[in-house]
Write a structure and sequence with these properties.
about 240 residues; mainly alpha
Protein backbone atom coordinates (compact mmCIF):
# COMPACT_ATOMS: atom_id res chain seq x y z
CA UNK A 1 0.00 0.00 0.00
CA UNK A 2 3.03 2.29 -0.11
CA UNK A 3 2.68 5.24 2.23
CA UNK A 4 -1.08 4.89 2.64
CA UNK A 5 -0.78 3.70 6.24
CA UNK A 6 1.38 6.68 7.14
CA UNK A 7 -1.04 9.11 5.50
CA UNK A 8 -3.96 7.51 7.32
CA UNK A 9 -2.16 7.78 10.66
CA UNK A 10 -0.86 11.34 10.29
CA UNK A 11 -4.20 12.68 9.05
CA UNK A 12 -6.20 10.67 11.58
CA UNK A 13 -7.89 12.21 14.63
CA UNK A 14 -5.68 10.62 17.32
CA UNK A 15 -2.08 10.66 16.13
CA UNK A 16 -1.34 14.33 16.79
CA UNK A 17 -2.87 14.13 20.26
CA UNK A 18 -0.84 11.03 21.10
CA UNK A 19 2.33 12.64 19.75
CA UNK A 20 1.87 15.84 21.77
CA UNK A 21 1.06 13.83 24.89
CA UNK A 22 4.19 11.72 24.42
CA UNK A 23 6.38 14.79 23.86
CA UNK A 24 4.98 16.53 26.94
CA UNK A 25 5.36 13.37 29.03
CA UNK A 26 8.96 12.93 27.89
CA UNK A 27 10.07 16.54 28.32
CA UNK A 28 8.47 16.72 31.77
CA UNK A 29 9.77 13.43 33.18
CA UNK A 30 13.24 12.85 31.71
CA UNK A 31 14.95 15.93 33.26
CA UNK A 32 13.17 15.30 36.58
CA UNK A 33 14.46 11.72 36.66
CA UNK A 34 18.05 12.84 36.17
CA UNK A 35 17.84 15.74 38.67
CA UNK A 36 16.09 13.66 41.32
CA UNK A 37 18.54 10.81 40.76
CA UNK A 38 21.46 13.20 41.27
CA UNK A 39 19.98 14.56 44.49
CA UNK A 40 19.25 11.11 45.87
CA UNK A 41 22.73 9.90 44.90
CA UNK A 42 24.27 12.71 46.96
CA UNK A 43 22.06 11.85 49.93
CA UNK A 44 22.84 8.13 49.78
CA UNK A 45 26.58 8.82 49.79
CA UNK A 46 26.28 10.60 53.13
CA UNK A 47 27.23 8.66 56.22
CA UNK A 48 24.24 7.71 58.41
CA UNK A 49 22.94 4.73 60.34
CA UNK A 50 21.09 2.19 58.19
CA UNK A 51 22.51 3.51 54.92
CA UNK A 52 22.67 0.01 53.38
CA UNK A 53 18.98 -0.61 54.10
CA UNK A 54 17.97 2.77 52.70
CA UNK A 55 19.89 2.11 49.50
CA UNK A 56 18.09 -1.21 49.07
CA UNK A 57 14.69 0.41 49.62
CA UNK A 58 15.44 3.24 47.18
CA UNK A 59 16.14 0.82 44.33
CA UNK A 60 12.85 -1.04 44.91
CA UNK A 61 10.59 1.21 42.72
CA UNK A 62 12.79 0.55 39.69
CA UNK A 63 12.70 -3.21 40.29
CA UNK A 64 8.91 -3.40 40.50
CA UNK A 65 6.96 -4.29 37.33
CA UNK A 66 5.09 -1.38 35.78
CA UNK A 67 1.68 -2.91 36.49
CA UNK A 68 2.42 -3.22 40.21
CA UNK A 69 3.69 0.37 40.34
CA UNK A 70 0.51 1.49 38.59
CA UNK A 71 -1.64 -0.25 41.21
CA UNK A 72 0.30 1.48 43.99
CA UNK A 73 -0.10 4.91 42.44
CA UNK A 74 -3.73 4.25 41.59
CA UNK A 75 -4.24 3.58 45.30
CA UNK A 76 -2.57 6.93 46.04
CA UNK A 77 -4.19 9.11 43.37
CA UNK A 78 -7.67 7.58 43.03
CA UNK A 79 -10.15 10.50 43.22
CA UNK A 80 -12.66 8.62 45.39
CA UNK A 81 -10.69 6.39 47.76
CA UNK A 82 -7.08 7.47 47.17
CA UNK A 83 -4.85 7.80 50.22
CA UNK A 84 -3.51 11.20 49.08
CA UNK A 85 -6.95 12.81 49.11
CA UNK A 86 -7.70 11.21 52.46
CA UNK A 87 -4.53 12.58 54.07
CA UNK A 88 -5.02 16.05 52.60
CA UNK A 89 -8.65 16.12 53.71
CA UNK A 90 -7.90 14.95 57.24
CA UNK A 91 -5.13 17.53 57.51
CA UNK A 92 -7.62 20.26 56.59
CA UNK A 93 -5.70 21.27 53.46
CA UNK A 94 -8.60 20.61 51.06
CA UNK A 95 -12.38 20.95 51.38
CA UNK A 96 -13.20 18.25 48.84
CA UNK A 97 -11.44 15.39 47.09
CA UNK A 98 -9.20 16.39 44.16
CA UNK A 99 -9.87 14.55 40.85
CA UNK A 100 -6.27 13.51 40.26
CA UNK A 101 -7.09 10.90 37.61
CA UNK A 102 -10.24 12.38 36.09
CA UNK A 103 -9.09 15.95 35.42
CA UNK A 104 -7.20 16.18 32.07
CA UNK A 105 -4.50 18.44 33.51
CA UNK A 106 -4.03 16.75 36.87
CA UNK A 107 -3.91 13.28 35.35
CA UNK A 108 -0.91 14.27 33.23
CA UNK A 109 0.94 15.44 36.34
CA UNK A 110 -0.07 12.27 38.17
CA UNK A 111 1.35 9.90 35.55
CA UNK A 112 4.56 11.94 35.35
CA UNK A 113 5.00 11.64 39.13
CA UNK A 114 4.41 7.88 38.96
CA UNK A 115 6.84 7.44 36.06
CA UNK A 116 9.57 9.52 37.72
CA UNK A 117 9.15 7.44 40.89
CA UNK A 118 9.75 4.22 38.98
CA UNK A 119 12.81 5.46 37.07
CA UNK A 120 14.85 7.74 39.35
CA UNK A 121 16.41 4.87 41.39
CA UNK A 122 18.30 3.62 38.33
CA UNK A 123 19.66 7.12 37.72
CA UNK A 124 20.61 7.43 41.39
CA UNK A 125 22.59 4.17 41.38
CA UNK A 126 24.59 5.07 38.27
CA UNK A 127 25.26 8.59 39.53
CA UNK A 128 26.39 7.19 42.87
CA UNK A 129 28.98 5.15 40.99
CA UNK A 130 30.09 8.23 39.05
CA UNK A 131 30.36 10.33 42.22
CA UNK A 132 32.36 7.69 44.09
CA UNK A 133 34.87 7.60 41.22
CA UNK A 134 35.79 11.27 41.76
CA UNK A 135 39.12 11.72 43.54
CA UNK A 136 38.45 13.21 47.04
CA UNK A 137 41.71 15.16 46.79
CA UNK A 138 40.09 17.38 44.15
CA UNK A 139 37.43 18.44 46.64
CA UNK A 140 40.06 19.05 49.28
CA UNK A 141 42.11 21.20 46.90
CA UNK A 142 39.04 23.19 45.92
CA UNK A 143 38.12 23.66 49.58
CA UNK A 144 41.62 24.92 50.37
CA UNK A 145 41.34 27.38 47.47
CA UNK A 146 38.19 28.78 49.09
CA UNK A 147 35.57 27.19 46.84
CA UNK A 148 32.09 26.96 48.36
CA UNK A 149 29.65 24.08 48.03
CA UNK A 150 28.14 25.31 44.76
CA UNK A 151 31.56 26.07 43.26
CA UNK A 152 32.85 22.60 44.17
CA UNK A 153 29.83 21.07 42.49
CA UNK A 154 30.14 23.26 39.38
CA UNK A 155 33.89 22.99 38.83
CA UNK A 156 34.74 19.59 40.32
CA UNK A 157 31.65 17.35 40.42
CA UNK A 158 29.80 18.40 37.27
CA UNK A 159 32.72 18.02 34.81
CA UNK A 160 33.40 14.54 36.20
CA UNK A 161 29.83 13.25 35.85
CA UNK A 162 28.73 15.04 32.67
CA UNK A 163 29.08 11.92 30.53
CA UNK A 164 26.94 9.90 32.94
CA UNK A 165 24.33 12.66 33.06
CA UNK A 166 24.08 12.63 29.27
CA UNK A 167 23.78 8.84 29.10
CA UNK A 168 21.02 8.94 31.71
CA UNK A 169 19.23 11.78 29.94
CA UNK A 170 19.20 9.84 26.66
CA UNK A 171 18.07 6.67 28.43
CA UNK A 172 15.34 8.46 30.42
CA UNK A 173 14.12 10.21 27.27
CA UNK A 174 13.76 6.94 25.37
CA UNK A 175 12.08 5.15 28.28
CA UNK A 176 9.60 8.00 28.76
CA UNK A 177 8.83 8.38 25.07
CA UNK A 178 8.12 4.68 24.68
CA UNK A 179 6.39 4.23 28.06
CA UNK A 180 3.26 2.10 27.95
CA UNK A 181 2.46 -0.20 30.87
CA UNK A 182 2.41 2.28 33.76
CA UNK A 183 0.23 4.88 32.06
CA UNK A 184 -2.11 2.33 30.53
CA UNK A 185 -2.63 0.51 33.83
CA UNK A 186 -3.27 3.78 35.70
CA UNK A 187 -5.54 5.60 33.26
CA UNK A 188 -6.21 3.47 30.16
CA UNK A 189 -5.23 6.53 28.10
CA UNK A 190 -7.94 8.69 29.66
CA UNK A 191 -9.78 10.64 30.66
CA UNK A 192 -10.66 11.04 27.01
CA UNK A 193 -7.28 11.13 25.28
CA UNK A 194 -5.45 13.11 27.99
CA UNK A 195 -2.85 10.37 28.60
CA UNK A 196 -2.97 8.56 25.26
CA UNK A 197 0.69 8.11 24.33
CA UNK A 198 2.18 6.88 21.06
CA UNK A 199 2.92 3.48 22.58
CA UNK A 200 -0.72 3.15 23.59
CA UNK A 201 -1.77 4.22 20.09
CA UNK A 202 0.38 1.42 18.65
CA UNK A 203 -1.43 -1.12 20.82
CA UNK A 204 -4.82 0.41 20.05
CA UNK A 205 -4.31 0.38 16.29
CA UNK A 206 -2.85 -3.13 16.26
CA UNK A 207 -4.75 -5.10 18.89
CA UNK A 208 -7.95 -3.14 19.45
CA UNK A 209 -8.78 -2.07 15.89
CA UNK A 210 -6.80 -4.97 14.33
CA UNK A 211 -5.23 -2.54 11.88
CA UNK A 212 -1.68 -3.88 12.01
CA UNK A 213 -0.51 -1.74 9.10
CA UNK A 214 -1.37 1.47 10.89
CA UNK A 215 0.06 0.12 14.13
CA UNK A 216 3.35 -0.68 12.41
CA UNK A 217 3.35 2.81 10.88
CA UNK A 218 2.98 4.44 14.31
CA UNK A 219 5.72 2.16 15.65
CA UNK A 220 8.13 3.18 12.89
CA UNK A 221 7.34 6.86 13.41
CA UNK A 222 8.04 6.39 17.13
CA UNK A 223 11.42 4.87 16.29
CA UNK A 224 12.30 7.80 14.04
CA UNK A 225 11.32 10.37 16.66
CA UNK A 226 13.33 8.47 19.30
CA UNK A 227 16.34 8.54 17.00
CA UNK A 228 15.78 12.26 16.54
CA UNK A 229 15.85 12.75 20.31
CA UNK A 230 19.16 10.89 20.55
CA UNK A 231 20.77 12.84 17.72
CA UNK A 232 19.56 16.19 19.09
CA UNK A 233 20.93 15.47 22.57
CA UNK A 234 24.27 14.17 21.31
CA UNK A 235 24.69 17.02 18.82
CA UNK A 236 24.15 19.58 21.59
CA UNK A 237 27.06 18.14 23.60
CA UNK A 238 30.63 19.41 23.62
CA UNK A 239 32.79 17.39 21.25
CA UNK A 240 35.27 16.50 24.00
CA UNK A 241 32.68 15.18 26.45
CA UNK A 242 33.56 11.50 26.02
CA UNK A 243 37.25 12.04 25.44
CA UNK A 244 39.40 12.50 22.37
CA UNK A 245 38.84 9.07 20.78
Amino acid sequence: VGLANYRAIVTGPFFLTALLNSLWFTLASAPLIVLLGLGVAHLLLASFRGRFLVRAVVILPWALPGAISAVLWLWIFHPSWGILNLLLYQAGLIDGYIPWLTDPTLVKLSVVVAHVWTQFPFAAVLLMAALVAIDPEQYEAARIDGAGGWQRFRYVTLPQIRAMLVVLLVYSTLVAFTSYDLTYAMTGGGPGTATTLLSFQIWKESFSMYNFGNGAAVGFITVLISLGFILAIVKALPSDLFGDD
